[in-house]
Amino acid sequence: MAGAGYRLLMASSAARLMRRRDPSPRAVAAALRTTALGRIPAEERAWIDRIDAHRRRLPAFVASAEEGLASPRRPPSERLAEASRACQWMSLPPIWAIFLARLVRELAPRSSLELGTGFGISTAFQAAALELNGSGTLLSLDIEGMTTLAQPGLDRLGLERRAELVPGMIEDTLSTALERAAPIDYALLDADHTEAGTLTAFDAVLPRLSGGAVVVVDDINWTAGMRRAWQRIQHRERVSTTVGLRRLGIVIVSARNDSR
Ligand SMILES: C[S@@+](CC[C@H](N)C(=O)[O-])C[C@H]1O[C@@H](n2cnc3c(N)ncnc32)[C@H](O)[C@@H]1O
Q1: How big is the chain by its Cα radius of gyration, in Å?
Q2: pTM higher than 0.70 for the full model?
């Protein structure tokens, strides 16, 4: 779907949510509407420019970090081309990364969780939004090979106090991370893109969510399995509102049962 199509879908979803009284749907609506219209506050634009500059430098950094690891050794140009492809397909495209930053600004979560740091692009956008909010932290989980590549970028951007990277297989790190982060106000699920992996992650995170928390699930239409996972998530207990944006799925849980 082209950018204009996504913007139209964002705007129409925003119009539907705006009629709601509770704060989380209204915050999601405001993030969707402003992203769709390109009404990004100047201070966020400044961060977007900084992170985009980092995104452009990333392939060279990744290629040099992998120098000597490849066997048999490949020419630098080949490594760079491969790093560029990996950085592009693994990281959220700009419109969605900007939307996540808008969402974090509107929601102002105290505690956030990300499954799937990747090269740290989505992490940087969300952490920058927390930095602008002046409060809140993000725990982001990925295998050590990825957190090692993502950490220097977050350090260079000065976002290390907002985002903490947790290295290891999520199967091993999630329960401790959930204990540390609960009650969680906002989460992004962007790691295991299988039906079972997505449902397992969602079901583990769900009991640790605060009332009115928002969960974003990436790639809900990527495969038939992801479409089934998204269908099932929408019928989980506590899920009060969902918005399907072709690529991202947004879940808002009921404002009741706030464990804080
Ligand atoms: C699509 S990338 C994340 C991209 C990132 N959110 C962004 O937009 O910049 C998915 C990440 O999930 C991680 N991942 C997938 N399954 C995992 C698991 N079981 N344990 C740890 N990390 C996992 C991969 O290593 C990969 O870095």
Answers
A1: 18
A2: yes
Please enumerate in sequence order all residues whose Cβ is within 8 A of that of 119, keeping only pairs 6 or more positions apart, or say none: 58, 62, 86, 87, 90, 91, 146, 149, 150, 153
What is the set of domains in the chain, with CATH numbers? 3-253 (3.40.50.150)
Rounded Cα gap, residues 194 and 122, in angstroms: 20
Q: How far is the CA of 192 from the centre of ligand 1 (A)?
A: 7
Which ligand 1 atom is the nearest neighbour of the CA of 188? 6
Q: What are phi and psi of 114, to 5 degrees?
A: -125, 130
Backbone phi, psi, residue 63, to 5°: -60, -40
What the block records as the tokens of 19 is 């009629």
pLDDT in tens, 103-143: 999 999 999 999 999 999 999 999 999 999 999 999 999 99
Number of neighbouring beta carbons within 10 Å of residue 65: 15
| Centre of ligand 1 from the C-alpha of residue 117, in Å | 6
Residue 118 Cβ inside 6 Å of ligand 1? The answer reads yes
How many CB atoms are closer than 10 A to CB 43? 11
